[in-house]
Amino acid sequence: MEKEPKYIVVIGASAGGLNSVIEVTAQLTREMYMAVFVVLHVTPNSATDHLLQRIQKNTSYECEIARNETVVEAGHIYMADSDRHLVVKKGTMLLGEGPVENRWRPSIDVLFRSAAAAYDGRVIGIILSGLMQDGTAGMLAIKRSGGTLIVQDPGQAEYPDMPRSVLDNMEVDYCLPLEQIGQVLLEKSKNGVHLHTVPKDVLAEAEIAEKAAIGIDKLKEIGEKSLFSCPDCGGGLWEMKHESFSRYRCHTGHVYSSNELLFKQNEALENTLWVALRMMEERRNLLKKMSEEEKSKGWVRSAKQKKERELELHDHIGRLKQVLFDEKRN
User: Fold this and answer.
1) 199: which of 74, 243, 298, 321 lies 20 to 30 Å off by Cα?
2) In this predicted model, what pLDDT tens digit does every residue of 95-124 receive, in sequence order?
3) Whole domain around residue 98: which residue ranges?
4) 145 and 43 together in one domain
5) Is 232 exposed, middle or buried (0-12, 13-18, 19+ CB in 10 A)?
6) Average pLDDT, whole number, for the chain?
7) How far is CA 114 from the centre of its chain?
8) Which of 311, 294, 293 minimizes the C-alpha distance to 302?
9) Pair (79, 225) in one structural domain
């Protein structure tokens, strides 16, 4: 079998995605001459080897965890390790521990964007079951670079958010049940490869993700300064251009879709409110203690003032708790 792959297949999955990955990779055949890269969202320190073994049992391709500067070969499945970004370069791959993207490391978008920049029209992007929106921006990069887009039919996916997000934001080449994806890959492998010019902004952002930290000048080429701050590092966020949906990146490399940014803002706000609640309760308790001590000493006026402030804080605390509990219910 030739080592040089004809196509680069990148697969992204999250919640409910392992079985979907297994079913798709089981349909791979040697005649396809493809190299396959997989990002499956798992928690840090997860047993990636165990997941890889389950995939290997059902495919004729050789499965391995992606390693830094490994040569890309046809007939191989390279799986991203937990808590490390996987970046595809021409003929090889790199691993990184840079900032999370859309709350994940490894990130589907990082893999897909790098593959598009390196292999243009030779890339086939596949999004399977998963929550939220990781993979949408990466699929758009593949589309704009001349690649092929395949999404699992959301009606079949255990968690349809990721496939549905792609469908809501762009036209795809195929929306299929899992059992039909292998046939499309086989047909693609028999066709000639159409080379395509990769857009400059896709190349620039792929470079950003690879280096993990860049200067503001580079961001100005691909985005516009927004009114929002990064919830992870506090830096300014830049809204990416050339996309039909909003996505934000800071100069240190944190990236969020609108929904992810809203989630992180809500999380930060809730944490801030709980800290404020704790401090208000401590202040109320201190005022109560001081009021009682001053009353016992006959300092009636001062004790009364502190008691009034204690009662005011009690009311404020009640209202703040109501806000927090209402937010929890919503």
Assistant:
1) 74
2) 887 778 888 889 999 999 999 999 999 999
3) 7-190
4) yes
5) middle
6) 89
7) 14
8) 294
9) no
